[in-house]
Write a structure and sequence with these properties.
Shape of chain B: globular
Strand order of the largest sheet of chain A: 5-6-7-3-8-9
Distance between the termini of chain A: 44 Å
CATH class of one domain in chain A: Alpha Beta
Structural class of chain A: alpha/beta
Strand content of chain A: 25-35%
Bound molecules: adenosine-5'-diphosphate, magnesium ion
Oligomer: heterodimer
Largest sheet of chain B: none
Order of helices and strands of chain A: EEEHEHEHHHEHEHEEHEEEHEH
Radius of gyration of chain B: 18 Å
Shape of chain A: elongated
Number of helices of chain B: 10
């Protein structure tokens, strides 16, 4: 029955700082069990949105329900049931890892056992280490552990992999998937498209406080009407001009020996390779590139924004 | 409530892990005691109304401990918790915000008390410190003085934008309080003008109150000091309540 009630419902959320409209009329809803991602450049309004949902900031306009509660009025009831990883926060320098978990567990009515969390986050060997002595990645993992210490129904993760190395980032992704596998809902923000593409069931693209797109990663990519790129290395003196005339080819770029043929259609690669072969051109390192969410994102934010992001 | 006591306990451990904080509260007063004690001893001296140097200094050093936990420890720890985002992280849990501030008060009070007890015990064991007062009034005076200075510490943390400016403000207030109040150097040695100036230094009133109660004055004999300290408490709490920010 709870399946039918969305975990999060947001209607025309608005929040300004002085004259700056950080979030400007955003509406969406998140289903139970979903991994929902919010992507956008720095300053797009992600943190403002997520913190309005967590009850850490209060909106100027619009309606927000999280687990059926109003974060403003029912803040305490809500905080019992959600887990929060903030983009910016800290613990006292001299607090030890185990003390932090033990302490935060004591704040909740029904805490989870925090010892297995240490293991799941691979910080068991750091349990007696002080916060100030942890690396960036270890701090991040500790904050995720703290976000899970009350066995929450809904977990908010704001920029969970910023500053992590690629390996740590991937193990974070596994962890998020594992959280969802336990039936929880995950709401995360990121400015890495790759992360949203690999992790999220649905992605909301936000820029300048407004929704630019909201869909599954696959549909968003499809929506770009997939431009395909073929890249290869040709011999010196190769004349790329004839390729332009081929059906489906939109653009040919030549940079030294490196050639990029961009175009559309399922047969593009066959056409190009046949043409090269027929002309007796020798080529190597041929590969193709599909557009990914990064391309979608660049296309969308270029349309929506004055400058595509940096404010 | 469980969360509150656990937080207080963890904060005590953290306090004792920070060498600077623990030094000023627990070690420095004893160093002063041994320094001046070894020079002057604790022989009765007409200059101190027939009491010894240690008898007069010990309650003054108690005032010094109160001044340093209030003006330095509280102001610095609260403002740096805010600046780093520790307070924010607590705010994202069901722990009541007031519990965080209350735990700061409890922890600093217990540390001030611990520093005081260590000091008195050392003075007693090494120099045969004399006590002519009653425990309860001394305890009450000590507690009121602590709370008043803690309120000032919260006030500093509230008005300062950064931990650094809270630190500077704390230092700027602490040193005149330390030297002009008679908390370190006996007032009896001050020239007249300096003694007059001391009246405007809040810690002077703590020194006067505790020294008086130490030799058996009734609380009623120190209405001025009690009023000044109560006023400080009210102003500190009122301004902090209005100006305090969580981030
Ligand atoms: N507390 C604040 N006071 C003033 N401006 C803010 C505050 N928080 C965010 N902003 C501004 O609002 C905009 C959105 O910020 P934010 O929500 O943090 O974006 P994101 O998380 O997507 O990077 C930015 O221009 C930022 O500078
Ligand atoms: Mg952000």
């Amino acid at each position: 029955m709870s399946e039918r009630v969305p975990a999060i419902e947001v209607d025309a959320l608005a929040k300004s700082y002085g004259r700056l409209k950080a979030v400007d009329g955003v509406s969406f809803s998140v289903g139970v069990g979903e991994i929902f991602g919010m992507v956008g450049p720095n300053g797009a309004g992600k943190t403002t949105t997520i913190e309005c949902l967590e009850g850490m900031r209060f909106p100027d306009g619009g309606a927000v329900r999280v687990l059926g509660l109003d974060p403003r009025k029912d803040g305490n009831a809500l905080r019992e049931r959600i887990g929060v990883q903030l983009q910016q926060s800290a613990l006292p320098d001299d607090m030890k890892v185990w003390e932090a978990l033990d302490l935060f567990a004591s704040y909740y009515r029904r805490p989870a056992d925090w010892k297995p969390l240490l293991e799941r986050l691979e910080i068991t060997d750091k349990r007696n280490t002080r916060f100030s002595k942890l690396s960036g990645g270890q701090k991040q993992r500790l904050f995720i552990a703290l976000a899970l210490v009350n066995d929450p129904e809904l977990v908010f993760l704001d920029e969970l992999t910023t500053g992590l190395d690629p390996h740590a980032r991937r193990s974070m992704w596994d962890l998020v998937r594992a959280i969802r596998e336990r039936g929880k809902t995950v709401f995360l923000t990121t400015h890495y498209m790759e992360e949203a593409e690999h992790l999220c069931d649905r992605v909301l693209v936000i820029d300048h406080g407004r929704i630019v797109a909201l869909d599954t990663p696959a549909s968003l990519v499809r929506g770009l009407k997939g431009e395909l790129r073929i890249l290869f290395t040709a011999e010196p003196g190769f004349d790329a001009a004839p390729l332009r005339a081929l059906p489906g080819v939109a653009r040919v770029e030549k940079n030294g020996n490196k050639v990029i043929v961009a175009g559309q259609g399922d047969r593009l690669i066959v056409v190009v390779v046949n043409a090269l072969d027929a002309a007796g051109v020798r080529f190597r390192d041929l590969r193709t590139e599909q557009p990914d969410l990064e391309d979608v994102f660049l296309a969308l934010t270029a349309e929506s924004g004055l400058d595509g992001g940096a404010r | 409530m469980k969360g509150f006591w656990k937080l207080a306990w963890v904060e005590i451990k953290i306090y004792l892990r920070q060498p600077e904080a623990a030094f000023f509260t627990l070690v420095f007063p004893m160093l002063l005691l041994f320094l001046f004690g070894s020079i002057y001893g604790n022989k009765p001296n007409p200059f101190f109304g027939g009491r010894g140097m240690v008898d007069v200094s010990t309650p003054a050093y108690l005032a010094m401990i109160i001044g340093s936990t209030g003006l330095l420890s509280i102001a610095i720890s609260v403002s740096s918790y805010r600046e780093k985002g520790v307070l924010r992280r607590y705010r994202a849990t069901p722990l009541r915000p007031a519990a965080v501030l209350a735990s700061e008060v409890v922890v600093h009070y217990l540390m001030t008390l611990l520093g005081g007890i260590l000091l008195v015990a050392a003075a007693r064991l090494v120099y045969g410190l004399r006590f002519e007062g009653r425990i309860v009034p001394v305890f009450l005076g000590f507690t009121l003085s602590s709370l008043s200075f803690f309120a000032v510490g919260f006030l500093l943390a509230s008005v300062a934008r950064t931990a650094r400016s809270a630190y500077i403000l704390g230092m700027v207030l602490y040193f005149p309080n330390l030297f002009l109040s008679g908390a370190t150097i006996p007032k009896q040695t001050f020239p007249q003008a300096l003694r007059a100036a001391g009246k405007f230094i809040p810690l002077t009133h703590v020194v006067n109150l505790l020294q008086g109660l130490w030799i058996g004055d009734p609380l009623g004999k120190h209405v001025l000091e009690l009023a000044v300290l109560a006023g400080l408490l009210v102003v500190g709490v009122a301004v902090s309540a209005k100006a305090f920010r969580w981030e």
